[in-house]
Write a structure and sequence with these properties.
single chain, alpha/beta, Alpha-lytic protease prodomain-like, Alpha-Beta Plaits, 3 domains, 4-stranded mixed sheet, 3-stranded mixed sheet, 10 helices
Length: about 375
């Protein structure tokens, strides 16, 4: 059979609904971050807690990131257009990269400031008990907004919303650190407050680096993990009709996955049967990974990567072969059919003649004789079939 390609495209989601859900959860989180930030900054200043002050600054970085999320989600959820046929989800990746960079910068500045403070040996004051109350309120509020935001992010398939959820959870983690350090400072280990501020800053840097690195990998089209790739290859190989798999390539765009795969099938089957086999492979892969957006599958009659004589594009076409036969043996009967197989850089022919329209001059031997001198000729069979 001739090679063929096909593409499976998942139906587009409701982008307006996704934008609405993302905006709602982000605005709720932004209001909560602003309130907690004010409480913690004021509490840190009034009740001598450097850790709570840094934690408050962390909350204000959440407000900034929420603004970034709102802007990016409006752009990334626009419908595909002529210039962006795959959609605008890479804008979301850029937003996640920006968010991660902000976290790294803020965390580094806070860590440096508090390390200098610790090394300077300045007299440290014991935090007041309201610091514990502020930290506890922050833990509860940020854990709630984390769970709510992450649930929405998973539902609308948004890595940026999920990243923002984890940003909220880092604030909850840092508030736990404030609780522990404040309790320690109250029982005599005053230096724990500044150490906790450094730890919180390092947590911010760690999360920012993770967001940044994941975004960079996506922007340079890093493929799926080796485990996921092998799983998809196994699914294809286990599909009835697939003889081999090669050139399985993947990349990400936002939360979605784009795949290209070559499937080797029996060369004598029809193009439509090859397409049906490909669709079965698509179904199996979609069941395994629900966030596959596009699968382009190419149906091959042979593995041209491993073949010692890969089929080249300059082999004669159907019209050229029919003309060669007609010139030597006369025109083929009107109801005859010519089937070509391009394999190992040769053309193998099957000619089907209608028994109601005999063509005694066209036999396997005669066709083989006139084509034997051509370098591209492989084999020929003439069949007589009932109409």
């Amino acid at each position: 059979m001739e090679q063929s390609s096909a593409s499976y495209h998942r139906p587009s989601p409701d982008l307006d609904e996704e934008k609405h859900a993302a905006s709602k959860v982000t605005i709720i989180g932004m209001v909560l971050d602003a309130v907690l930030g004010i409480i913690k900054v004021i509490g840190g200043i009034l009740f001598n807690s450097q850790a709570l002050l840094v934690d408050g600054i962390h909350s204000f970085t959440d407000v900034v990131s929420d603004w970034v999320v709102l802007a990016v989600m409006r752009l990334s959820r626009k419908e595909p257009d002529a210039d962006h046929p795959y959609g605008h989800q890479r804008i979301e990746t850029l937003g996640t990269l920006l968010l991660g960079s902000i976290l790294i910068a803020v965390g580094a500045a806070l860590a440096w400031e508090n390390i200098l403070r610790l090394l300077a040996g300045d007299e440290l004051k014991v935090p007041g008990w309201p610091v514990l109350v502020a930290a506890a309120v922050s833990v509860l509020g940020k854990e709630w907004i984390y769970r709510y935001t992450r649930r929405v992010g998973i539902r609308i398939r948004s890595d940026l919303i999920i990243a923002n959820a984890w940003h909220s959870r880092t604030d909850a983690f840092s508030s736990v650190v404030v609780l522990v350090s404040t309790a320690g400072a109250m029982i005599g280990f005053v230096w724990l407050d500044v150490v906790a501020a450094v730890v919180i800053a390092l947590i911010i840097i760690h999360i920012g680096w993770k967001f940044t690195w994941d975004s960079v990998k996506e922007l340079v089209d890093t493929g799926l993990s080796e485990e996921d790739t092998e799983m998809l290859r196994t699914i294809a190989m286990d599909t009835d009709g697939v003889r081999n798999v090669h050139e399985l390539r993947s990349r990400r765009m936002g939360h979605d996955i784009l795949l290209d795969i070559h499937l080797v099938v029996r060369p004598e089957i029809s193009v439509s049967e090859g397409h049906q086999i490909g669709m079965k492979v698509v179904t199996g892969m979609r069941h395994a990974l629900g966030n596959i957006r596009d699968i382009n599958f190419h149906i091959d009659a042979e593995n041209d990567e491993q073949s010692a004589h890969p089929t080249e594009p300059n082999l004669p076409s159907r019209e050229e072969i029919r003309a060669s036969i007609s010139q030597a043996l006369g025109e083929l009967p009107p109801h005859s059919k010519l089937r070509l197989h391009y394999l190992k850089n040769r053309v193998h022919l099957e000619i089907f003649l209608d028994e109601d329209h005999p063509a005694p001059g066209i036999t396997t031997e005669k066709v083989r004789e006139i084509l034997a001198g051509h370098a591209w000729f492989g084999s020929v069979r003439v069949w007589l079939a009932a109409n």
